[in-house]
Amino acid sequence: MNKTIDKRYNGFKLLAVDDNQHNLFTLRSLVSKHMDVEILEAESGRQALELARANPDIDLIILDVQMPEMDGFETARMLKLYKKTSEIPVIFLTAAFKTEEFQQKGYDVGAADYLLKPIDDNQLLNKISTYFRLIEKERELNRILEQKVAERTAELHQANQHLENILRYMGEALLILTPQGAIKQVNPAACAMLGYDEKELLGMSIGDVFEEEGQEQANAFMGMWLEALIRAGALRDIEAAFIAKNGKRVPILFSRTAIVDQQGDIDEIICIAKNMSGYCRVDEADATNRESQIS
């Protein structure tokens, strides 16, 4: 075995638990000789629980089975009950409980490994090294995942910011409706066109701002909307009018699109209105007459 201390495991923390101080000294000497890790020691199950709770960054526990008051099985079971210590891998190390029944009991209470004494020093070091490498790999994968999540979050934030800027500065009024026609989101252009604050518009029915003679007609108009949207998915360039808060009629060119969910039901309705105030409509008959007069 190479006697050089393995610096790869610098920063790792190991907890050794044994009621025999000689065993603790032997284990500490062996590990310290070959690995640059921090070693904590406990001489009882209760002391092991206290140290584990106080040091949630412990990476591995080597636990003797035969101890007075609280044996290794009970200690391991208690470790698994607490969230802070439940994920720490536990290696049982015992000279007394060698039967398959005890080994199975060790695995049942959450042991990662069950080693029997006498154990070769190289074998024990290899076992410890294997778990440290697995932990190291898991941490690296977590770092990569966290980096990817952070990058994706930044991309989404940037995209959302870009979309918000588009909605904020677009000249047309944007209203997003529930399937029932209630206004759930508006942009500044819609507020300016209708003369309402955003808070006033949210929750209003789209029929409340449309030019309709009465509520019955407004409801019927909304019903026709939904039927047409379900059939066609979108309706574009409809001539209509908004009624602003001050009662003023605002002629608009109106488009609306249905956004459907995975079941094909309408999830929300996107409405875009262009203010046509100041625009003069010319129908085909007027255009023909004017062309005749020019000729």
What would the principal axes of the Cα set say about the shape?
Answer: rod-shaped
Number of strands: 10
Runs with pLDDT <50, length 5+?
214-218
Radius of gyration: 37 Å
Spatial strand arrangement across the major sheet? 2-1-3-4-5
Helix content: 40-55%
Description:
The structure is a single chain. With 295 residues, this protein is an alpha/beta fold. It has nine helices and ten strands. It has helices spanning 21-34, 45-54, 72-81, 100-108, 121-169, 188-194, 198-201, 215-232, 284-294; strands at residues 13-17, 38-42, 60-64, 90-94, 113-116, 173-177, 183-186, 234-243, 249-260, 266-275. Mean pLDDT is 83; it is low at 214-218.
Keywords:
about 300 residues; five-stranded parallel β-sheet; five-stranded antiparallel β-sheet; 9 helices; 10 strands
Summarize the structure.
The chain is 45% helix and 22% strand.
Helices and strands, with pairings:
Blueprint: E1 13-17, H1 21-34, E2 38-42, H2 45-54, E3 60-64, H3 72-81, E4 90-94, H4 100-108, E5 113-116, H5 121-169, E6 173-177, E7 183-186, H6 188-194, H7 198-201, H8 215-232, E8 234-243, E9 249-260, E10 266-275, H9 284-294
Parallel strand pairs: 1-2, 1-3, 3-4, 4-5
Antiparallel strand pairs: 6-7, 6-10, 8-9, 9-10
